[in-house]
Amino acid sequence: ALENTSFNPKLVSHSENIGVIHKKIIENLYKNPVVICDVSGKNPNVMFELGLRLAFDKPTIIIKDYETDYSFDTSPIKHLEYPRDLNYSKMKQFQKELIEAVKATYEEPNDSTFLKSFGTFKAVKIDTETIPEYDFILEKIESLTKTIENTQYNNIYEKDIYGNNFYSRGTQLDAKGRVAKYIYDNEVNFSSTKKIVIADILNINPATISRVLRHFKRKNIIDSDEKIINKSLLMEYFEK
């Protein structure tokens, strides 16, 4: 949405260096002048990251699709909304509103903070005693992440580890075959599973997964919500 502007949007997990991903997420949440947070579907990891950003009292723009309900704690904050079906004309209007919001937030950052709406508070800072060193933060995040993943993806991980050799790193299927097999075996959980988790399981770049999913949608194998439409066509990619 911001590709034709002077801004350079990046994922909160982006880093030029190799390192602990949670540390990079914390650094980017704290240091970036503006963060756009998409709470569509209320993914627990996203909501946790939003909570950190708001605790830092840094400028934040929240977006969501029309179908996602407002969360009680963040409902006072303005949300920009877009259609889940990505209708072209409505998405163009959303793009315009998002660009305007980013520009306004960047130029007047103090108008977009959260805590000031409730009184005078001392915002959390990484480089003060308000929050201890990174090791403490990372330990808590890793613990919470494991709890979330064990709850949300338990069936997938047990199957990956104990039930199906398809997920081993030595698989001979190409990228489309691996993604197709994963969708077929995990039809119920696939659309709600973060693509970065699936990418790690299948040893595929997340961008490759996105390209494969677009291919399957063009072939009418899965729908816009990533639900299977044609199982027989899907099976052709891994039963060769």
Topology:
Elements lengths: L20 H11 L3 E4 L5 H12 L4 E6 L13 E4 L5 H20 L26 H19 L1 H10 L11 H11 L9 H8 L3 H13 L12 H5 L5
Parallel strand pairs: 1-2, 2-3
Quick rundown:
The protein is 45% helix and 6% strand.
Characterization of the model:
The chain is mostly helical. It folds into 2 domains: 21-146, Rossmann fold (3-Layer(aba) Sandwich); 165-235, Arc Repressor Mutant, subunit A. Helix content is 45%, strand content 6%. The protein has 9 helices and 3 strands, in the order αβαββααααααα. It has helices spanning 21-31, 44-55, 88-107, 134-152, 154-163, 175-185, 195-202, 206-218, 231-235; strands spanning 35-38, 60-65, 79-82. It has a 3-stranded parallel sheet, with helices on both faces. Helix 2 links the parallel strand 1 (35-38) and strand 2. The longest helix is centred in the middle third of the chain and has 20 residues, at 88-107.
Rg to the nearest angstrom? Answer: 20 Å
What is the H/E string? Answer: HEHEEHHHHHHH
**Number of separate domains:** 2
**Numbering strands along the chain, what is their spatial order in the largest sheet?**
1-2-3
CATH class call of the largest domain = Alpha Beta
The CATH architecture of the largest domain: 3-Layer(aba) Sandwich
Features:
mainly alpha; 240 residues; globular; Rossmann fold; Arc Repressor Mutant, subunit A; single chain; 9 helices
